[in-house]
Amino acid sequence: MEKKQTKTSVQQRSDGMWIVDAKLSAVRIGLQDKEFVKRGHNTDYRLWVTCFVAKTKNACVDWLRDNMAMLDKRSQKYSVNVRQHKESTN
């Protein structure tokens, strides 16, 4: 199975600062309760989140290179296999 690369963006804001945005899992960053997903009440979703702000584009690119593994982990959608689901409902 091929691993998907995290979607990221480096952009300059209107005030001249640079930002790193990444498409991250709502469960993995704490916006949605994973227990609701385990029970089947909700499904995880990804949303664009600003992760880093700097004065230069190079600082953002450097930060992104150093933190890509962390972003990859937080971008994975939270899912539950059938056995986990059965255990959580019993």
Give your account of this protein's structure.
It is a single chain. The protein is of the alpha+beta class. It has one domain (8-77). The chain has helices at 34-38, 57-75, 82-89, and strands at residues 8-12, 18-25, 46-54. It is elongated and about 45 Å long. The model has no long low-confidence stretch (mean pLDDT 87).
Indicate the topology.
Layout: E1 8-12, E2 18-25, H1 34-38, E3 46-54, H2 57-75, H3 82-89
Antiparallel strand pairs: 1-2, 2-3
Note the total helix count.
3
Order of helices and strands: EEHEHH
**How many structural domains are formed by the residues?**
1
Summarize the biggest pleated sheet: 3 strands, antiparallel
Distance between the termini: 32 Å
Give the class from helix and strand content and strand pairing. Answer: alpha+beta
Q: What share of residues is helical?
A: 25-40%
Rg for CA atoms: 16 Å
The tally of strands reads 3
Note the beta-strand portion.
Answer: 15-25%
Given as residue ranges, the uncertain stretches (5+ residues, pLDDT < 50) are: none
Q: Any idea what the shape is?
A: elongated
Average predicted local confidence, pLDDT = 87
Strand order of the largest sheet: 1-2-3
Summarize the structure.
The protein is of the alpha+beta class and 90 residues long.
Tags for this model:
single chain, 90 residues, alpha+beta, 3-stranded antiparallel beta sheet
